[in-house]
């Protein structure tokens, strides 16, 4: 399994109502053993989370199913991260 850094940056269309669904999404990933770290940026511009996936396509599929992405509340970008 590789690690992937998911960056979520709020868009002008950000909906505060999506926050609970986003946290539930992250909780499900944690229960599945896919989520290592997660948290918002202190300036409230978005956040980031670190997931484990077999490959970049799988990581993107996971990240792009995040409610902040599916509601167009945030731009979501996935990076393969060779962290040690």
UniProtKB/TrEMBL annotation:
* Pfam families assigned to the protein according to its UniProt record, in alphabetical order: YCII
Q: What is this protein called?
A: YCII-related domain-containing protein
- State the InterPro entries in the record: Dimeric_a/b-barrel, YCII
User: Could you tell me which residue ranges the YCII-related domain spans?
Assistant: 4-82
For this UniProt entry, which residues form the secretion signal? none
Question: Organism source for this protein?
Answer: Solimicrobium silvestre
- What stretch or stretches form a coiled coil here? none
- Family stated for the protein in its record: Belongs to the YciI family.
């Amino acid at each position: 399994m590789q690690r992937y850094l998911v960056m979520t940056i709020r868009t002008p269309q950000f909906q505060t109502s999506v926050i609970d669904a986003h946290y539930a999404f992250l909780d499900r990933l944690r229960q599945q053993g896919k989520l290592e770290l997660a948290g918002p940026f202190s300036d409230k511009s978005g956040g980031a989370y670190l997931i484990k996936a077999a490959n970049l396509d799988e990581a993107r599929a996971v990240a792009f199913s995040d409610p902040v992405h599916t509601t167009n509340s945030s731009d979501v970008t996935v990076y393969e991260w060779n962290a040690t």
